[in-house]
Design brief:
heterodimer; A: two-stranded antiparallel sheet; 15 helices; 2 strands; elongated; B: alpha/beta
């Protein structure tokens, strides 16, 4: 039963920076309580409206965006990007029981893979045609998993002031790269050009197994993480589209089957709660840049 | 003269739910014979918030973010979910083959012998990143509370308790959170709405949009560019046939479900005519309710249109500076009077903001000044337990709570369907502002919106 006597006796009064607890007679509470009130300054941050965030973003001119487009952690470490995320890796392995046996569907059989490879042959033919020049460019840019495709949905591709968001994305990419390799090794599925020799991949096929697609897994993992941090931002839904495009481009490049993409998405969705535990501090830091 | 401080529950007084002295206005919780059940399809909720104790149905809380067929976060320590008394949605999905198949899968998942979590997949319901849902839940059903102060922060002569005098619009209701991600995935949302029906929601609230590629901006698909429509050509990825069919079925499902149960939808924060999808599905003959935002003074909030929606409810205002309206806040520190036309609408701006519950500690919209984990034995500050909130998300939560309260009080019959609930809502609505005769704000007892801060 709701106790309305609490509301009759006390109120929260809102001012520009505070939420003050007052007795209904409008008298300040005892000194100890006042100290508590002063201590509990409410942030002016608000979920009020997206325009406000966007306008603020436009006003950010500081170019502190040094990590941008540096997704290779080893490379980034050498050039002033994020350091090797050893603490996060340690936390990840402390929770290994929560992510090493996720119920990812078994990969298709070889005959099924050959069927899926035919679809890739179709894409190979189309990719060589003029209307797909943009996709060819995308495939080359995305080969190294650079960050612009993740930043663009939020309109921060050329903006400074989002260091924590970028560092978080880089860390997610680093951790999921490793997790993906673990799952790939379990089934050791051959690359499409190994089951369909007529495929001439637009990119060199990486030297590890095909299923699941790490590009899909990593990209969707970034999207799911951002979906927890700023779900109400319209860019959070757009980021899924961007991730899907990156993943499908790997099919167009002939290095992944459609089933690899689907498995990458599925794994990213299931592993989000683990990433949230491992990366809570980094996610909070990123969130603070948006609220 | 602008008041420097205002009541955090101003919106409940304005809607005739509370008196200015914070007593229930013409009703009493004892009058509620059967608490209403509100299903909120949104993010997860910080269920341990002290003002939400008794408000959240932990057994039924359902997470679709990380688990395709849902996880029961509140039952995670149980061996099986047990008999949760689900209803029957068979008639709802008749003629919708994709929904029918998903319902069959869902019913298997909801059998009493099923485990709370599926194959070890954790639910994505950690409280730290549950800000939006926590604010929505508080606006609907928070209860006033008194909590202990953390022992380590007590002086000898301190009162060991702290009152938290905050309240949702229906502090008698029961909230079932259905948490979702924001992937453009029709299956997840179909499952969410089916679940809302299976748990017999009295009200469903959707304080978010749905990223349906075909219905979010349908006019793009009406622009023919020869080989394809503009909508098709700008899709980053082709939508598989199955998903295309499921998106269409989802739209049908929402309308069909709204005939059974009112579905309260946020209409968007960017002046969208007729609301974002699926608020845009609202029509006279269904139970979809598109909710816009009105500020404390009775003007449509700067981000909300003044017509074309079902109802409006109070929310925080924003500024606007474009050809349609110049509404700025001259008290804002960055206010610059250069370029402001002689005729402007600055006087319409209201600084009254909606306050709601927030994730305690470092998470949420308002962070604690303490960086460590929250104490286990009480609170050491209350600022991080509440936040400023707004948008049509807040307004939709308030309308859902108003319907819930009316249902609990018997003002809406227990067997009323979605259309009847919507009719009740409209019967309680008045236009507080003669300049906007179509801007209807419902209030308890239909007494009219009591504007404040003029």
């Amino acid at each position: 039963m709701a106790d309305f006597s609490i509301l009759r006796s006390f109120s929260f009064m809102v001012s520009a920076d505070d939420l003050d607890l007052v007795e209904r007679e409008q008298m300040p509470l005892a000194s100890a309580m006042s100290a508590m009130s002063a201590m509990s300054v409410m942030s002016a941050r608000t979920a009020l409206n997206r325009n406000r965030n966007r306008n603020r973003n436009r006003n950010r001119n500081r170019n502190r965006n040094r990590n941008r487009n540096r997704n290779d952690t080893a490379n980034a470490a050498a050039t002033g990007g994020i350091l090797e995320p050893w603490e996060e890796r340690a936390a990840l392995y402390a929770l290994r029981d929560e992510w090493m046996n996720l119920p990812l569907a078994l990969p298709p059989s070889l005959p099924e893979l050959r069927t899926q490879a035919v679809e890739l042959l179709h894409k190979q033919v189309l990719l060589a045609q003029a209307p797909h020049a943009i996709r060819r460019e995308e495939i080359l840019i995305e080969a190294e998993l650079e960050l612009s495709r993740y930043l663009r949905p939020y309109g921060i591709e050329t903006h400074g002031g989002y260091d924590a968001t970028i560092a978080l994305m880089l860390t997610v990419l680093a951790l999921t790269d490793e997790i993906g390799l673990y799952y790939k090794a379990r089934w050791n599925v051959p690359r499409p050009n190994q089951v369909e020799p007529r495929l001439r991949p637009f990119l060199p096929a990486p030297a590890h197994a095909s299923y699941p697609s790490n590009h899909a897994f990593q990209s969707f993992a970034v999207a799911f993480v951002m979906s927890r941090i700023i779900p109400e931002h319209p860019g959070s839904s757009e980021l899924f589209q961007s991730a899907r495009r990156i993943a499908e481009n790997r099919e167009w490049a002939g290095v992944h089957y459609a089933c690899d993409t689907a498995a990458g998405h599925s794994l990213a969705r299931m592993i989000l709660p683990v990433l949230e535990k491992v990366l809570e501090r980094q996610m909070l830091a990123a969130q603070a840049e948006w609220l | 003269m602008t008041e420097t401080r205002y009541d955090s529950l101003w919106h409940l007084v304005a809607l005739g739910v509370l008196t200015p002295d914070h007593d229930p206005d013409g009703w009493w919780p004892d009058d509620v014979t059967r608490p209403s059940r509100v299903v909120m399809i949104d993010t997860s909720v910080a269920m341990d918030h002290p003002n939400l104790q008794g408000a959240i149905n932990r057994d039924l809380a359902f997470d679709l973010f990380s688990t395709r067929l849902g996880a029961f976060a509140g039952l995670r320590d149980a061996d099986r979910i047990g008999d949760l008394s689900f209803g029957n949605a068979t008639a709802l999905v008749a003629g919708l083959p994709g929904c029918e198949a998903l319902l069959a899968e869902l019913m298997q998942r909801l059998c009493p012998d099923q485990p709370p979590l599926v194959d070890g997949v954790q639910p994505a319901t950690g409280p730290v990143f549950s800000a939006h849902g926590t604010a929505i839940a508080g606006l609907i059903g928070a209860r006033p509370a008194v909590v202990d102060r953390a022992a380590a922060h007590l002086e000898d002569d301190d009162d060991p308790t702290v009152p938290l005098p905050y309240c949702g619009i229906d502090p008698t209701c029961e909230i079932v959170p259905v948490s979702t991600n924001f992937d453009d995935d029709p299956e997840q949302l179909i499952l969410a709405f089916l679940y809302a029906d299976l748990v017999r929601a009295d009200v469903i609230v959707l304080p978010r949009g749905i990223p349906d590629p075909f219905r979010r901006t349908p006019e793009l698909f009406a622009t023919d560019l020869g080989s394809a429509t503009l909508g098709q050509m700008v899709l980053p990825c082709p939508v598989p046939d199955r998903d295309r069919a499921l998106w269409a079925e989802l739209a049908e499902l929402i309308v069909k479900l709204s005939l059974r149960r009112p579905i309260v939808c946020a209409a968007g924060n960017e002046n969208e005519d007729y609301g974002i999808y699926p608020a845009s599905l609202a029509s006279d003959d269904n139970g979809v309710i598109a909710v816009g935002a009105v500020n404390a003074k009775g003007w449509p909030c700067s981000y909300s249109p003044g017509s074309g929606l079902t109802v409006w409810a109070p929310s925080s205002d924003g500024t606007r500076f474009d050809s349609a309206e110049v509404r700025l806040d001259p008290t804002e520190s960055r206010y610059d009077d250069h370029g402001i036309p002689a005729t402007h609408q600055n006087a319409r701006f209201s600084h009254y903001q909606i306050i709601s519950t927030d994730v305690p500690g470092q998470g949420g919209y308002a962070a604690s000044p303490y960086t460590g984990p929250e104490p286990e034995d009480g609170v050491r500050e209350y600022g991080s337990y509440f936040c400023r909130f707004g948008g049509t998300s807040a307004a939709s939560a308030i309308v859902a709570g108003l319907i819930s309260l009316a249902r609990g009080l018997g003002q809406i019959a227990g067997n009323a369907d979605g259309v009847e609930a919507k009719a009740w809502l409209l019967a309680q609505a008045q236009a507080p502002n003669p300049a906007y005769p179509n801007l209807l704000v419902p209030s308890l007892g239909g007494r009219g919106y009591q504007a404040v801060g003029q």
